[in-house]
Amino acid sequence: MIHSMKIIYLMLVLLPISACSVEMGMDDKSMDSKVEQKQEKESRQMASTTTSPSPYADSIIKDDRTGIIPATLEIPAIDLKAEVESVGLKENGEMAVTEGFETTGWYEKGYRPGEPGRAVIGGHVDSRNGPAVFYHLKKLSKGDEIIVSSIDGETRTFVVKEKKEYPWDDAPLKSIFGYTHRSSLNLITCTGDFDHTSRNYSKRLVIYTELKA
User: Fold this and answer.
1) Domain boundaries, the chain
2) In principle, which of 37, 91, 142, 209 could form an S-S bond with 158, CB 3.0–4.6 Å?
3) What is the number of other CB atoms lying within 10 angstroms of the CB of residue 180?
4) Share in percent of the chain as helix, strand, coil (round to 5)
5) How far is it, in rounded angstroms, from Cα 170 to Cα 151?
6) Left (φ > 0), alpha (ψ -120 to 50) or beta: where does 84 sit?
7) 45-78 pLDDT, tens digit each
8) Alpha-carbon torsion, ordered 110, 114, 120, 123, to 10 deg
9) Which residue, 68, 130, 75, 141, is CA-closest to 104?
10) 102: closest CA among 144, 140, 73?
């Protein structure tokens, strides 16, 4: 009984489709003529719109910004030139740092310098032996330039917009690492008072920069 009901239901479902097929086949020549006329009309319409240039073509702004994997970092204002290594995250979720004190670290899980978004490069401020790569970062002023180069020689130049200090455990991660339609590069290092017990500085210094036009 159930099998018979399935067959009846299937016939009812297919009936409208079969009826449409029969109706379409009643006058093939007439139908073909109408289809050809419609296709010809559509072709003429497409030709008229695709061969004529848009009056707005010259005013369309194309976004051709691309990022690079940084290999070197230069900051002429503080006479700095350093290698850039790719770093990820520590087990505790913090951005990792380089083992060397004279090299900087680009956060590779974020954005590339030059593309839309906030790229981040960090560096040590000092070591047991004295000043490290970002020791003089706090001397930067608005308008100073930061030049990032890839291993094959591509460069992106950024301009300092502002610098801010935040408590080490209360920095605005979104404004440092998050997305923006601008092409930004943020430099980060330690500052403030050093706690010998925790071996940690009380603050973080962030230099905010944007791609030079």
Assistant:
1) 2-51, 70-211
2) 209
3) 13
4) 30, 35, 35
5) 35
6) beta
7) 544 444 555 565 565 666 788 999 999 999 999 9
8) 130
9) 75
10) 73
Give CA–CA dist 67/132, Å, rounded: 27
* CA–CA gap between residue 117 and residue 109 (Å, rounded): 12
Number of Cβ within 10 Å of residue 114's Cβ equals 23
Alpha-carbon torsion 189, 193, 199, 202, what sign?
negative
Give the C-alpha separation, 190 to 176, whole Å. 14
pLDDT in tens, 165-204: 999 899 999 999 999 999 999 999 999 998 888 788 999 9
Best CATH choice for the domain 70-211 from the list 3.40.30.10, 3.40.50.2000, 2.40.50.180, 2.40.260.10: 2.40.260.10
- φ, ψ of residue 187 to 5 degrees: the values are -100, 135
